Amino acid sequence: MFENLSERLEKSFKILKGQGKITEINVAETLKEVRRSLLDADVNYKIAKEFTNTVKEKALGMNVLTAVKPGQMMVKIVHDELIQLMGGTHVDINIKGNPAVILMSGLQGSGKTTFIRKYAQYLMEQGMNIGILENDYGAVNVDMMLLQDLMGDNCELEMISGGCDKETHRRRFRTKLIAMGMCGYDRVLIEPSGIFDMDEFFDALHESPLDRWYEIGNVITVVDAVLEENLSEDAEFILASEVANAGIVLLSKAQEAAETDIERTKAHLNKAMESVHCDRQFGKEIFAKDWNKLSDADFKKIQSAGYVGADYEKKDIAEEDAFQSLYFMNLTMPVEKLEEKVKQIFNDKECGNIFRIKGFMQTKSDQWIELNATHQNITIQPIKEGQEIFIVIGEKLNKEKINTNLLGTQTPL
Q: In terms of Cα–Cα distance, which of 22, 31, 36, 26 is closest to 73?
């Protein structure tokens, strides 16, 4: 089930070696190691705790046969429970029908996390239990900071992070989904880009045991209303692959865009479809409205959007190959100075083709601010808490030149 889990469990069972009988003490010691093994394998804490509690109850309530050693009996109990955890024939998952998976796609910095936040709040207001899976493949995770205050009885956040290879990250991603499948969520919001394209993710959800625990709900793609026009060929492909299966395309910051900008973005998306030999052309699926003014009817429209099984020409290009991200830590300066430097970076062509600069900074008054900047607009607003980091996203980035403009001597990660 989990990478290296069998080896770790074997070490846990050595505690019972040579013991004449099962007792509360040796069971507690063994299950402490079992729980630690499950947590190391990225199993949700609540699932791991429930699992070990069930094993403990069965172990202490069982009359151990004299011919069976305690260690062997514990191995059998844990084995049987793991089979049920993996969706064995006797498993009884306590959920009200299969949770619908909502897939969020879109280019880096397009506004996916901002919308996830708004959508999760809406779903919780409807009485739903929400799980959010944040994908932090090969990057410093800023987005989790924007979602922290959602956590509570009706919303849990899970994250996969680390700079491991893509296949290992995919296995960890799948392991998280297995654990989340048993938490009783009504909706699970996932942003899988960088790890799976939509077709690959659909295939993963049709594998056992995920096929019995989830159903595909929506594919929602977020696109900046003022889409960058001068994308490279690789970036155009990533854009096309992100929107191809969308049931609805949400334009971020539509209230700040002129009608001509929105029409240009629509034309750009349709041209991207043509570039990958996809017959799909966007019209009514594109939704342009201020997200702060979304009505109940708007959310219901988004909720019922579904997805489209579009065919397009595939290329072996990943998002991290088409885009670059530079990270700057522990940046401190007056807010007015920050805005000035950000403008300077966007205007300096030697810095590269910059799409977005975002992140957090703590001011001298110990207040946190959030920066979200594009060529068209710079937004700086207070936030409850943050992480001292700024991210520059774009193509052909010149880190030395950005260094000079932003910090003088600070070195990006």
A: 22
* 3-state class percentages of the chain: helix first, strand second, coil last, to nearest 5: 45, 20, 35
Instruction: With CA atoms as reference, report the closest residue to 81 among 41, 34, 15.
Output: 34
> How far apart (Å, rounded) are the C-alpha atoms in residues 208 and 34?
24
Q: Report yes or no: 41 and 175 within 8 Å, Cβ to Cβ.
A: yes
C-alpha 118: how far from its chain's center? 15
Look at the alpha carbons of 202, 190, 157, 358 in this order and tell me if their dihedral is positive or negative: positive
Per-residue pLDDT tens over the stretch 20-79: 566 777 777 777 777 777 776 667 766 777 888 888 877 776 544 333 455 556 666 776
Please name which of 159, 162, 137 lies closest in space to residue 147, comparing C-alpha atoms.
Answer: 159
Q: What is the pLDDT of residues 276-316, one digit of tens each?
A: 999 999 998 999 999 999 999 999 999 988 888 888 888 77
Alpha helix ranges (H) inside 153-295: 166-180, 198-205, 210-213, 233-243, 259-275
53 HSE (CA, 13 A, CB side): 6
Does residue 220 surpass a pLDDT of 90? yes
CB contact set of 127 (below 8 Å; sequence gap of 6+): none
